[in-house]
Amino acid sequence: MADMGRVSFFGFLAAALSLGGGCVTSGDKPPQASVSYPPVLRADFPDPFILVHEGQYLAYATNTGGVNVQMASSTELASWRLLKDERDPSRLHDAMPVLPSWVKPGFTWAPEVLRTPDGFVLYFTARHAASGLQCVGAATSREPRGPFTSEAPGPLVCQDALGGTIDASPFRASDGQLYLYFKNDGNNPAFNKPTEIFAQRLSPDGLSLVGEPVSLVRNDKPWEAHVVEAPTMIERGGSYVLFFSANHYGWESTQRVSNYGIGYATCEGPLGPCTDAPDNPFLASTFQPCLSGPGHQTVFQAEGRDFFAFHSWSATSTCSPAKLGRFMSVVQLTWQDGAPQLSPLEPR
């Protein structure tokens, strides 16, 4: 999740990106998309994360309208409803209505939830009031809808010298060991540092970090421009795949479509080393049908299948910004010779 107040960096990549993994310059004919991934939730729901719980799908997203952590639910993935406050149905439900003491309100991003024997842990990005940096915190709840609370006096992780820390994502390996993945906020204009995705072991309760962080991926490819972020680690058949988003998240008036996209790396283990896929980006903007700025993916399993959720910018029928925020899409994720493949949702 990129900071809304930050300066845009467009000198790094002037090309719009095609779904097939190549780039098209502004003078080229727009590519034709072979598939369409229409939104399943047409509301501003950035940085989605989906938890499967007791036959339901629960989605969490970045703050909106005074709500720190918004939520939506579904029973069959194709249609979703925003959860409302039970006491005041005119307001959205807030999974974390009370922020920890170290947090400045209004900048709570990219929530992800881990199930533990004691309940649920919510990892979130928030503005550290003392330093002004975006940092990662953790809150707990007995129920997945919250309320999640935290008495921690400070962030779980905040890489002060590297611009701060955002986009925490938990992962449980097949041996039960927990890991946390996160990105240093080096593209903060006050720091102007490279961005990297780090991994670090978590304690069994998911509330403290163990050992030292390891760098897995950094913004060293042209399509990534100034930033890599939003990590998602998964293990399938003994192989490890790290999905991530890259490039400027926004859809500016000077752009035909947003340059934001999704790539992946193959890793030898939860702590790497990792190698970028040669055909990145894995998913990127297309002009027809309009898919602008797909990013901040999450992967989940249900009924023995893999699914892939992400956000993209709301668009008009002529592929211009609809200015309604970022909508959530959910698609099927399959594997061919160890490589990920996406396809539209099948009727269920």
UniProtKB/TrEMBL annotation:
A Gene Ontology MF term for this entry?
hydrolase activity
| Keyword field contains Hydrolase | yes
Keywords in alphabetical order = Glycosidase, Hydrolase
TM region positions: none
Q: Does the keyword Transferase belong to this entry?
A: no
Q: Which SUPFAM superfamilies match?
A: Arabinanase/levansucrase/invertase (SSF75005)
Which superkingdom is the protein from?
Bacteria
Q: Which family does it belong to?
A: Belongs to the glycosyl hydrolase 43 family.
Alphabetical list of PANTHER family matching this protein: BETA-XYLOSIDASE, ENDO-ARABINASE
Q: What is this protein called?
A: Glycosyl hydrolase family 43
Write down the species: Archangium gephyra
